[in-house]
Amino acid sequence: MEDLLQYLTNKARDLGVQYTDSRFQDVKQTLITAENGSLRSYESDRSFGVGIRVLVDGAWGIASSTILDRKVLGQKVSEAVRMAKAARKLTASTRLAKVKPVEATFKLPIKIDPDNIPPDVKVKALLEANKSGRSGAGIKNSFSRLGFLRDVRMFTSSEGAKIKTDITTCGFSQSSVAEANGSMERVPEQRSQCAGYEFIEDGDWNTFAGEVSQLASKAVAAPMPPPGTHVAILDPELIGLFLHEALGHASEGDLVVSKESVLEGRLGDSIASESVTIYDDGLISSGYVVPFDDEGVPKTKTTIVEKGRLAGFLLSRDTAPELGLEPTGNARAQSFEHKPIVRMTNVYMQPGSYSFDELLREIDYGFYIRGRGSLGGQVDVGGGTFTFRAGPSYLIEKGELKHMVRAVSLAGKVLETLRTIDAIGKDFTVTTSVFGGCGKDGQMAKVGDGGPHVRLGKLTIGGRTD
Amino acid sequence: MSDLLTSAETAVKLAMKKGFEEAEAFTSKITKQEIIYRGRIEATKTNIIAGLGIRGIVDQRIGFFSISSLERRDIEYAIDQAFKIAIATNEDSDWKSLPREYGKTSVEKVVDKRVEQLTAKDLVSEVRLVLDTVREVDQSLEVTRGYIATGVSSNAIANSHGCKLERKETNAASWIAVKAGGSNGKGVSHEFSQSRHWRGLKNEPLARSVSERALKMLHAKTVPSGKLSTVWRNDVFGSVIDAMLTRIITADAIQKNRSPWAGKIGKPVASEQVSIVDEGTMAAGIGTRHFDDDGVPQKRVPVIEKGILRGFLYDCYTAYKENRKTTGNAHRDFGTFSSPPNYMKTPSPYPNNLIVKPQGASPDELIRETRNGLYIVETIGEWLSNPISGDLSATVASGFIIEKGELGRAVKGMIVSANFFDVLRGRMDLRANDLENAGPVYAPTTQVLDMTVSGE
Predict the structure, then answer these.
(1) B239: part of which helix (H) or strand (E)?
(2) Could you tell me the fold of the domain covering B3-216?
């Protein structure tokens, strides 16, 4: 494969491009699904292909193919050059930040390759957990999945970079539907890790599935919160999602360069309370492992917010020069066919000093917002509005946790909500997912996020009064 | 015969030789062209993806494997993997058989030759049109992101009962984000358009609409919490229907108790004013195809007629389980431009073109009729709603106050919520005549009464 990539690099060079890189990717995925006690599907796939990127007169031409034939790929290189040239009069005059070409191999250490576990062993483990998920009052549906992903990527550039990464991820997910008094509620939850099959072997998925179902049974009978703006404690799972939506996207360099982000021009400004420090880190334990990005740049630990001040953006080689900054290794592509764009890796908040009880004690009326059962979130980066959907959560009254509330939607403004963080817990958890990811510009990326328990003074909670 | 069909037939033959009792191969070739721009063009892209999914059955055990190649050795590898999976899995007592008959229905305007012949220059001149139009509306506007993408998707399917078919469709999509107000501006707006046809994109009106709204959004604020009547722009209401209905009207959701509508056929689930039909053969429809991903002709499937629940969407597997005919709703992808190639998945039921029946009024008349409330033009997070409980919530990214039947100040940032089953039962009776799609759903501009608004 290295020969093929070298051939494509030479071919592009011969066509007079400023810069070129080639990416080969070989992905194996397996998704096994069980529902209500029986196996629903066992889907497995292998996808490989090559993506070539050429910089011509300041514009990127990108070509990709699953057909790994020199002739076909050679034609694709010519086509990429031709397309980039067609755009000549309207191009963005892209400049690339200088980086030292890296030669490296990174293979995530795993104990057991999921490929070496026979399918029947995986099916048995899944069906057992699925069965445990059927217990609980009013459970109508138990839906369980085992997911495996092995993502091998090779990168070469006309500057001499040569990188190979090999990351394996495994996970289990459970979604349970409960019914009570004519209403139904679904609670989904998952656990994943960049690891081998040992992660599945070591987990107690029967208990996990049972707990998700019990949560669904309880949630279906819970009331909705009253609508309005309230004090809230977010748990580590939810603070991760919150940071991802409320800050992470706005710190992406491409959105800063295009002036779409509300953080544009605010480097050094105070955007959060002084106790807040936030990082994006490709190698944080239990996050999604990103040692290098898809431009061959090492993913360093990037400080986005330091003691409340905006300290940095997430940058690619073509966005960094626009802002006079250095690339941070955040140019990531979903696959060989996609253009590397600025993406988060694992965004998290540094823990503080509060115990959970201390966070709770001072709240007269508010909500404890939980991540378990959350459906995800979304942000309108330009408008600065973010939203996310929490799992079953709890009312807080006079410093104490009260009854459960369900169907909790939350919304806020990027620049306003971060300022309302007034206390940060001392615990710390980061999670990732083999099942989902973050969507941007039509691409999905594997990410992780997390932090401690965090208290916010003001968050819009979408309840209902019918 | 095309390469795709030859590969599919070869795969079926090899799979039977391997020891499967039944086998099916689904092959795809997808070519895409895309141009990505901000203020100026950032990248041009050309892609080709070819692959195959093989499904084999032995002793009611199903194995499936897909691979991004049509090379003989890769097909053999995929068959070996599928066989290993099949013999390791448990019997599926609901498995009857693969379809014993394929069929093609006649559909119009799913292929645009223009899309197949487009050159980079055509795409570039369309980007120029967008950028010029935005500037024409206001010099200070900035196009912060945008893309124009086109694709040609060819598929073939064959099985061991001697059935074989092939089909082709074209697609085009355009997305524009525009910002007003220079470096301090917060007026942002987005528009998306999707069509089977190159000229269906209507980039100029799209650029005009997104620009004009971005200017209006400059001073948008939230509103106080309370109850308000709302009017949802057609495509945004389409995405609400997509979030709330597409996953509870499929036969697998019903059979597996994931839908509150199980056992409710023939019963009222909505007011008499509401009719919803899945129109699998609609001319130029985003989900229109000659046959579905099982190889069965697509057709018209009434879902709700004058408030009465009439039917669910079936693929072959779920239909055979109930000893009935499929409705031609098998999908291996979910209709979006970024979803994985269809050969990578086994079929499951999903809407083709789910249409909320429009009425006679214009959107303006609907706004006038509403008198006081909220006009919702863009939302985020509506897809986070819970279709099983019916808890609908969406965060408004761009909207306008309706005052005395006229559009007033721009608003954003509030969460609007309702129970969607209550909405169906008499709170969405007033709809306009302007169908537009969001994914597989076509909806008109729709009034929704009494929504809870969480704002200030």
Answers:
(1) helix B234-245
(2) PmbA/TldD fold (3.30.2290)
